[in-house]
Write a structure and sequence with these properties.
Elements: E1 5-10, E2 13-17, E3 28-32, E4 35-38, E5 40-42, H1 44-47, E6 52-59, E7 74-82, E8 84-89, E9 92-97, E10 101-104, E11 110-113, E12 120-128, H2 134-137
Antiparallel strand pairs: 1-2, 3-4, 5-6, 6-12, 7-10, 7-12, 8-9, 8-11
Length: about 150
Amino acid sequence: MKRIEKVAAAENFSAVSVGKLDELGDYLLELGPDVKIPGKVFGGAAVGATGGEFSFQLFRPGTETGFLHTHKNHEELYFFLAGKGEFQVDGKVFPIGEGSVVRVAPAGKRSVRNNGDRPLVMLCVQYRGGTFTAEDAADGVILNEPVRW
């Protein structure tokens, strides 16, 4: 089974690699003896994330999540990086593909499937919903320091 590779770390950062996106199928997420999800890897713990979680997932042609799910508190953003398929939220089914982004509120009943002929690659970012404010949007500080490579 494939594993996340640590790239670098110091006091204020950490960096990892999940590898090539077309090799995500080498991962296997085991949520229990009866729940095994091929092609999915979570990365939040590997980078030490403190405000959210992320995962990559590869769906081979003709595969799907296989279940609906919701969250208690977490909103999710789904970024589709390659391939095409369909997404379902609360019974509404719509097409997704490379470049698509879907936001789902915690209570949304969601699932995804690949009905294309190439792998569907997805990045999912999960975070506590209802917490981002206009003040947060202006949180960045541009420093008056030269960039040295």
